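> @MW can you paste both from yesterday?
MW: sure, first one:
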Amino acid sequence: MVEHDIDESEQKLDAEVAPALIAVHPYQKFVSVAVGSDLRVFSFQHGSAAQLSDDTGGHKDSIRAIRYSKSGNLFVSGGDDKLVKVWDTDSWRCVYSVVSEKRVTSLAVSGDDKFVSFADKFGVVYVVDIGDYDDENRATVHKKAVPILSHYCSIITRLDFSPDGRYIISADRDFKIRVTLFSKERLEGAHEIQCFCLGHTEFVCSLAFPRSQDYARGLLVSGSGDSTVRLWDYNSGSLLDTCEIGTKAGLSNSNQKQEDALPAVTDLCETCDGSMVAAAIQSLQGIILLRCNFSSRTLSIAKVVSIAGETFIPTSISAASSVPLLWMVMGASSLSATDSTLLARVRVVSGLGADHSEPIVPETSVVEDKEVPGGEPLLQALQGRLTINEEASLTTAEAVKTAMHNLLIKKQYSAERRDFRKRGRNDKKIKP
């Protein structure tokens, strides 16, 4: 990993630019987009934007992670304002608000809806017990988080519970994937490490769990800044296969700058039948579909789905567990103090519902705006406007690329800056 000198102005820029995120309800009742501190939710039942209610006033800084629970009853969000919010999707009220000591980088919800876990920028993972959730039109409850494990000052980029709920899986900026037993005594700490999945040579930023009817426990797929997608047995930590996704998609060449030679995988998402994984990659106008062969335990590229006619490089992708659509968003938070515009562009890919376990190229297509489920009201609600011009798309794509690079590279400080940061850290201060 390349190290770079940084100064205060660069740190400020990193904080100002955050990629847009998208999350889809398991039964596609809602689609949510986060851009900066703005959380936008579209309800298919009502055909309009959902009205969010939060006694604490909502997020105050860039949102870095959003997630629906497996049941779809809960939605969670967290980010740079050091807050994790738990929303009831029936009323879209914020029912729990959790304060983190540091900025929140990732989060996950247990399969039984009883626990929310989140990670902060210092690599500490916390768990919050929400098992007594009961929405009786009461005020937001301020829950306390309990630390359960740590990656020792390495930014955790992705957090997930395994499909069977036995493990909590965390990936970080320092190439590691850690599989930790999620103890039955949930709030007593997760001290038993099942294994590490080691092999990436750059930051790991995304995880997914392809599965089949005969392999419900699934395997683990990870995406990284080294431009590879890797397949793992997460029970043993064994590396099963590596797909050089950047090279095979023709995105790497010797004429590029060193930092651009390996375009990063920015997000992964299982298709609704679980047999395929969609991948967003930093320089690709579209997505790549990968097929997981469970009998041979291999990973291969099934298709590259290109988006022609506009500059659209997804920053986040998501799919419902029951609908054969893949939702994508490209966007970024404000790029300057004088620009209050929150840019976002939503696109949809269809044709992902058939059983692709056989080596057949899926008949996918990019849905035109007029045919997107929810139509113009959805685009207006999630994008903030019906159309995004080409200049805005180009600016957004470049800003997000720079933001991800600056966030995830290891930063090298001068001796003076290092001492100053040590004095300013409050996690080491002894509290009376």
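MW: second:
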Amino acid sequence: MRCHAKKKTTVLAVLLFCWGLYFISHLDFITDRSHEPSPYELSWQAERLVSKESWVEQGDYLPLNVSYQLLAGAPSTQQRYLSVGLSSVKRQKGSYLVPTLQSLFSHLSPEECSSIVVVVLLADFDVTWRITTVTEIKTKFALQLEQGQLVVLHVTQDLYPPLTGLKRNFNDASERVSFRSKQNVDYSFLIHYSANLAQYYLQLEDDVFAAKNFLTTIKRHVEEQEAKKTTWAMLEFSALGYIGKLYRSAHLPLLARFLFLFYQEMPCDWLMSHFRVLLTQKEPILIKPSLFQHMGTFSSFHGMYNKLKDSDFEEGLYTNPSAEVYTDMSPYKKHFPKMAWEAGEGFFWGRSPEKGNYLTVVFAQPTVVTGIFIETGSGGKDLLESAQVELGHDVFTTYSEDKSCKEFQSVGMLNNGRFEIKELDKKYMSASSCLRIQITAGQKDWVIINKIRITHRAEI
């Protein structure tokens, strides 16, 4: 205990010392000032009152004073479960901000919407662009703005530290250094504002779309981490950049200052990784499948083409209904059959299957299946080479006390270890009670079934 306390004290002392030097040399850039709003702004000015619960905010440690222009919406006076932060700038080719917001809110139930607040920082200094963007947001998200689920902010340029003539670390071009350094400050201001809005904070980019039920999944993984009683500072719900990084709000005041202090040193995702380590989380905690996918085709930096995608993202992953899963194939270690059905990193791994072997999903309630997706194998190995997919009716208990269906109807065959069919309800309109993968030819190789995903609707 003493060793851990000593390490923490040392880290904080180093941060305080570095900040002191920086504060002295850049005092005029971080002290609070009064601003006269532009007559062309669609905003009124407001001071953000930051929570004094964190030790960072007590006694004016590491001062970071900044005024915000509130362009649209107003935060609730009640703390929510999750705040979601987005920073957006003008792009040379198109804009993804509105589709990103639509994706977030469309994948939330009304109850879930009441437990989040999305904070958007319009971080571009182009007044015309800001007015156009705010007008569009007010038109398309009037309800969310009214109910305190969406807030749009801006910080004026004179509150930023120097953004030109910076250190060219990693031999980056000066324009690139200026871009990523400003981005660090953008996130610093955004995180600083969000410090006491919710219990947890999620960092996103302005060009992503979300998986269904993303909030439910985040809550489940947070509960799992808390139950383990292990130290965590950042949970990652995407492997990409600044997307899907979750923090405890108690850490936000320190994170905001950390990004501001080292803003010109390296890109934001590198700084975030260093921050995680400083808070004694040595290894990243990457949650799979990813909950957020990068949708942008063109980068906000000079409109450069960007094809970056998260291979672990599955938009429709969390639609599977409650079910039990049975198989007569021998599983390897703890790779049980239900792991292919449930959301998560798990998969079913079975020893060499024989003709007639099966994996059967028995739904808790009869379900009208509209689509089926099955993926087997890993890295081109352990593919299921020959099998048909079937839907069944009339559940019964077998002699081995498993469950199955009395009647099955084939809906297609696997091809190269995969199966996908849509609009299935146009041909099979009645509700099904089972889904079965029936092996039609034995194979020497083992088999991995890593995804069984269905889309469905209520029985009619």
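> thanks! Residues 86 and 120 are 5 Å apart (CA to CA).
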